Amino acid sequence: MSLNILIVEDLPYDAELMALRLRDEGFDLDYTRVQRETAYLEALEKSPDLILCDWHLPQFSGRRALSLLRQQNLDIPFIIVSGGIGEEAAVDALRQGANDYVLKDRPARLGEAVRRVLIDKQLRMAHRIAEEKLRLADRAFQNTAEGITVTDASGNIVSTNPAFEAITGYSHEEVLGQNPRVLKSGHHPDSFYKEMWDTLLLTGHWRGEIWNRRKNGDAYPEWLTISAVKDGNDETTHYVGVFTDISQIKEAQDQINFLAHHDALTRLPNRALFRERFDHALMHARREKASIALLFLDLDRFKTVNDTLGHPVGDQVLLEVSKRMNQIIRASDTLARLGGDEFVLLLEEQTDAQHAAVVARKLIDLFSRPMIIGEHELVVTASIGITLYPNDGDDSDKLIRHADRAMYEAKQQGRNTYRFFTHALTEGALERLMMENDLRHAVARNELILHYQPIVNLETRQLQGIEALVRWQHPEQGLIAPGLFIELAEEIGIIGEIGQWVLRAACSQLARWDRDGFKVPRISVNLSVQQIDREGLITMVSEELDNSGLSPERLELEVTESMLIRNPELSRTVLSELRTLGVKFAIDDFGTGYSSLAYLKLLPLDHLKIDQSFVRDIGKDDNDEAIVRAIIAMSKSLGLESVAEGVEEAHQARFLQQAGSDLAQGYLYSRPLPADEIFSNWIRSENTETI
Q1: Is it the case that residue 132 has pLDDT exceeding 70?
Q2: Which of 65, 85, 143, 400 could form a disulfide with 55 if both were Cys (CB 3.0 to 4.6 A apart)?
Q3: What pLDDT is attached to residue 303?
Q4: Half-sphere exposure of 342 toward its Cβ, with a 13 Å CA cutoff?
């Protein structure tokens, strides 16, 4: 049977949402929407099955609609669906004859309310309708999912339906003749029940949320509607209670409310709840002339953990970090996760700079202990920025911003430390913003240049290749090394543009050297992780090789260990496709990542570049020497040539040659130089094939 519903609503979208909700609940319906009195009266002439009415409309009102319905003595269920009706107005509407009300922000109740008022209507017609109608009503009584209790005028139970037993645990026989207070939970004061009965006796109806108790002792919430049944003399003969167990709805609402204010992973307060508590703490501090400390904490190199070991491991790290921090904070403190690997700690009671520093040191000590995550033993340090109210700001936005700047300064000072905010740091933030803006235009303004560093054979000192290294020739700050802008380029998403420029410029320079008679076997160019992730890398490399006229085997692309392990399958696929072009590959900074011999064997590599941090301590550190020997042995076992980076002293070169390393680059042979200087050095050399 299709329901014909009249919706009194000025917003078409809200009316459609009501209809969609009811259809999702299984109702077959057609609806008409009106928003003015004239149209409403015309629609009433068609005798709709149900009226859903907003309480406040621009040119009409729910109060007026209800009054017109009663004036015409029409028995049509009337449900208020409003976003702004207050409790007092809702009670008043019920007294005037409204059957129920549903708040727009609780749409899950709409289907229940419609079912209840339709059942109520059936029950009201049960001393007036024919025998067949009575059987239909009884069928609904027996089969409805809502619990139903029928009492006599004195309140003694005379009938219950199967859903009553399913919800309460009491059988019909156990409660027959008893008062419904057998279900009383003890959650409500006596005044609650007095108000219920006052409303019921006055209006003949009561609706609301109530806590009752099951037979097994468990308390549960239910939505209850009680209606008085009157005879032909308008005397009350029975009361009918229709109720729904809303435990799951309440639990879902509680969960939604919790997640709206807490981080789903760590269960810590989220940004919204933290801001609310922070603003409240500031109000209290202003009133009491007290101080507040804010610690802004960011994990060091957490991105590397995510990229190399995967997000599940990263999530476990965040859980362990939050667990450790919770161990040292006071009940009056607020620890929150803002997102990613950023946490904030608000210190309120008896707080000053000294106390904040003590807490920061405790946190750093906590992180210094290794954490076991699955099969991995990790040490994840943190950088902490500290601001104080009222010294560093008088509102939450400013204090958070200043704490963030202090944290960034801690990272600049080597990480795994803390820094207090100083006003000089805001100048640094402006400088970074200006550099970011300048960097976005560096390629278009032709401000990038390449320097080149030779790669030589350790035994013959012959030139084996040249690595292209990008520099930024800033118009005001001069030459800027890549360590000061490459990470920034990755953060703001322009590393792909810079990478393509470097590849084009390097290939063009190699072709130019060919024309000038300077025979360089190959040129090496670094790839960023974002270039591997993005589509079009293979096409770009192919096009640049075609444009320069170079044979592919003279181009070597350098990637880091962490870049490959971050997404092994994607890395393997991309490198294999590039290999089909004929280009070479080298792993840069080898020894600093997490790669395994088994994985390296699957990749189309040509060179392993030994990180300069190991080369630097040759002759000083036996462990680093052992690591270098192991890397050289590994490269030979894989059939690869090893390239030692950062060779500055002759004794380092001798050690590397004796250990079996093939190639080297570093200041011992040449600093990174502009193209013309590399060329002139070659011209001046005694042997045109050596440097």
Answers
A1: no
A2: 85
A3: 81
A4: 14
Q: Per residue in 530-567, pLDDT tens? A: 788 777 889 999 999 999 999 999 999 998 876 776 66
Q: Is 487 exposed, middle or buried (0-12, 13-18, 19+ CB in 10 A)?
A: exposed
Cα–Cα distances in angstroms (integers) from residue 138 to residues 106, 125, 135, 160, 240, in the given order: 30, 12, 5, 11, 13
Name the 3-class secondary structure at 144: coil
Collapsed DSSP state (helix, strand, coil) of residue 554? helix
Name which residue leads in pLDDT, 624 or 99: 99
> Hey, what are 370's tokens?
């290794």
Give the separation between CA 229 and CA 206, rounded to whole angstroms.
13
Q: What is the DSSP letter of 234?
A: S
Between the CA of residue 144 and those of 118, 172, 504, what are the distances in Å? 12, 16, 74
Task: Measure Cα distances from 282 to 90, 277, 512 in Å.
Answer: 37, 9, 65
CB 602 within 8 A of CB 622: no
Angle formed by the axes of helices 650-659 and 622-637, nearest 10°: 40
Q: Which amino acid is at 64?
A: R
d(CA 178, CA 171): 12
The pLDDT score that the predictor gives to residue 452 is: 95
- The confidence score (pLDDT) of residue 427 equals 54
Q: Quick check: 71 and 45 in contact, CB under 8 A?
A: no
- In whole angstroms, give the CA distance from residue 658 to residue 653: 9
Which pLDDT score is estimated for 36?
93
Q: How far is residue 105's CA from residue 86's CA, in Å, rounded to a whole number?
A: 13
Query: Is residue 99 predicted with pLDDT exceeding 70?
Result: yes
| 424-440 and 396-412 helices, crossing angle to 10° | 80
**Residue 410: how many other CB atoms lie within 10 Å:** 26
Nearest-angstrom CA–CA distance, 564 and 528:
11
**Span 166-184, average pLDDT:** 91
Q: How many CA atoms lie within 13 A of 623 on its CB side?
A: 2
Measured CA to CA, the distance from residue 399 to residue 406 in angstroms comes to: 10
Span 209-226, mean pLDDT? Answer: 92
Q: Percentages helix, strand, coil for the chain, rounded to the nearest 5?
A: 45, 25, 30
What is the three-class DSSP state of 226? strand
Higher pLDDT, 493 or 641: 641
How many other C-beta atoms can be found within 10 angstroms of the C-beta atom of residue 215?
14
Query: Is residue 370 reached through a cis peptide bond, with omega within 30 degrees of 0 on the bond before it?
Result: no
Residue 44 has pLDDT above 90, yes or no: yes
Q: 493: alpha, beta or left, given left = phi > 0 and alpha = psi -120 to 50?
A: left
Q: Do the Cβ atoms of 343 and 366 come closer than 8 Å?
A: no
Give the residue ranges of DSSP H helices in 424-557: 424-440, 486-491, 495-516, 529-533, 537-548
**DSSP SS3 for 12:** helix
Start-to-end Cα distance in the chain = 93
* CA–CA dist 621, 619 (Å, integer): 6
Residue ranges of alpha helices (H) inside 595-649 are 597-600, 612-615, 622-637
Alpha-carbon dihedral 230, 232, 233, 236, rounded to 10 degrees: -10
pTM metric for this prediction = 0.45
What is the Cα–Cα distance from 594 to 458, expressed in whole angstroms?
28
3-state secondary structure 294-338: EEEEEECCHHHHHHHHCHHHHHHHHHHHHHHHHCCCCCCCEEEEE
Angle between helices 87-96 and 190-203 (to 10 degrees): 40
